[in-house]
Amino acid sequence: MIKVAVSGCFGRMGSAVIDAVSAADDMEVACGIDPFPKEGASFTVYSSMEEAVAAGGFDVVVDFTQPSVIEGNLRCALPAGIDCVVGTTGLSDEKLNEIIRENFDLRPAGIIKMLDLRRPIYKQTAAYGHFGRTDVDLPWEHLDKVETLKKYL
After folding, report:
1. CB distance 43 to 33 below 8 Å
2. 5 C-beta neighbours (distance < 10 Å), count
3. H helices within the chain, ranges in order?
4. Which phi and psi (to 5°) does residue 39 adopt?
5. 91-142: per-residue pLDDT in tens?
6. Cβ-proximal residues to 107 (8 Å cutoff; 6+ apart), any chain
7. What is the sign of the dihedral through the CA atoms of 138, 142, 144 and 146?
8. Distance between CA atoms of 57 and 1, rounded to whole angstroms?
């Protein structure tokens, strides 16, 4: 059984990680780490990585918090021999919203146009689903925005 600590456990990504770990057969949530603890968690919550590392009891920490927080967490966890899984855009919600507004027309007509939804493609997707298929040209599987979005990183 892999014992997982989740940094930022009450945030949007942290909550998703908690749900995924809880649903897995080979993992369990050992603790959460969040500077703003909330009542009612089904696991122990520490206010800092230092506290969690001192208490021990986990094999890996998953950290999708802010870059400034992740750096300090790594400095604490790695010397203690704790494996770390980290990821963040490092962008504020405001910046992400700006990028989306600049690159995607999310009005109904814009989505219809961007994904070319008026084409008769749905019969092909009625069986076997539609995500990840390469035998049908599905606009939502195109990677045409990758280079444009990379400039923001």
Report:
1. no
2. 30
3. 12-23, 49-55, 67-77, 93-103, 108-114, 122-125, 146-150
4. -75, 155
5. 777 888 899 999 999 999 999 998 888 888 777 777 777 677 778 788 888 8
6. none
7. positive
8. 12
